[in-house]
Design goal:
Length: 261
């Protein structure tokens, strides 16, 4: 995108919340772990931006042939003093045939402008919970680690993350030190392709629920999230104790599922 290129304003379909629109300008682009591309934005009114870690913005990204499409991306960080907002894009694909999000992150240049709406989403830390369980795959790492960065240091957090192998792991101390009650378990799928599987569902089924009132944040591939949600409900968690969002589905470009069954 060029600095003077604009994106169309779209009215949300009936029933969707009326999210505030923001006009963001790219100020920096850099690689980030693991296999992420971090795009830093600013806006004249960025000081008014308020969100909870784990929430996302809806970006209007070029989708080819002059068209634009909605894509949800988690906010990685916000520095109001500097007026900067970071979004990490997971660079999946073979590097040549990228979907709109990674393609935008690869090609973004300082001065590019983009229209976004938000924030949105309910997958965030709950102050009233005695413990948290959070699960996700690679594309969920920005949300997961931003929650870990911003939650109370003594919060009891159990984290399950699915990745290809050990090379995709990120050390907790590289994100934040002093999280003594946080436990991260990395699940390696090896040669298995990312997508629907029982890997995370089995890990959740084997997770012993701690005492007290819990809260689960389940994000990732939609069918995997649904399996995890159903397991936790069958074990006594109420629907109000589970925030579950499908970030993606095989064969679908874009979209975001609120998993409620």
């Amino acid at each position: 995108m060029t600095p003077d290129q604009t994106t169309p304003v779209q009215t949300p379909p009936a029933g969707r919340p009326q999210l505030r629109q923001w006009e963001l300008t790219v100020t920096a682009v850099a690689d980030a772990p693991a296999n992420m591309r971090r795009v830093t934005f600013t806006a004249p009114d960025i000081a008014e931006f308020t969100y909870r870690a784990g929430q996302a913005i809806v970006m209007m990204l070029p989708a080819g042939d002059g068209e634009f499409g909605r894509r949800d991306y988690t906010i990685r960080s916000l520095d109001k003093e500097k007026g900067l907002l970071d979004v990490d894009f997971f660079m999946h694909g073979d590097g040549t045939h990228l979907t709109p999000g990674p393609a935008f992150a690869r090609d973004a240049k300082i001065g590019d402008k983009i229209s976004v709406r938000g924030p949105r989403g309910g997958a965030s830390f709950r102050e009233d919970a005695d413990w948290h369980l959070i699960t996700g795959d690679e594309c969920c790492i920005p949300a997961i680690f931003h929650i870990l960065e911003t939650m109370p240091a003594k919060a009891q957090m159990h984290v399950l993350i699915e990745v290809d192998n050990v090379a995709s792991q990120i050390a907790l101390n590289d994100v934040r030190e002093g999280l003594s009650a946080t436990q991260i378990t990395w699940l390696h799928r090896g040669d298995q392709k990312a997508g629907p599987s029982d890997l995370m569902a089995e890990a959740v089924a084997g997770f012993m629920l701690p005492h007290g009132r819990g809260h689960a944040i389940l994000i990732g591939e939609t069918s995997n999230v649904r399996k995890q949600r159903q397991n936790l409900i069958s074990r006594g968690l109420t629907r109000e104790q589970i925030a579950s969002e499908g970030y993606w589905r095989p064969g679908r470009i874009g979209g975001h599922d609120h998993v409620e069954d």
